[in-house]
Write a structure and sequence with these properties.
The protein has 71 residues and is an alpha+beta fold. It is built from 1 helix and 5 strands.
Length: 71
């Protein structure tokens, strides 16, 4: 994959959608670094309050070399 580096992927609060996102990272030869779940919350964007739904945040690295399968 030519898009090396970290990627942050937001996923709606649904285990099936999370599985699809993780599968896609794997298909794109990325490595999942972390998966976080965040509850619904109110955030400020540009000084304006906004309600954000609960969901997952996937951190993936597309710049790592694949692990050696002989270990």
């Amino acid at each position: 994959m030519s898009d090396d580096g970290y990627r942050v992927i937001s996923v709606e609060d649904d285990p099936k959608l999370l599985q699809e996102a993780l599968d896609q990272v794997s298909e794109d030869e990325g490595v999942v670094v972390s998966v976080l779940w965040q509850p619904s919350r109110e955030v400020a964007v540009g000084g304006v309050s906004k309600q954000v739904s609960s969901g997952f945040v996937v951190i993936a690295d597309f710049g790592l070399e694949p692990p050696d399968s002989h270990h």
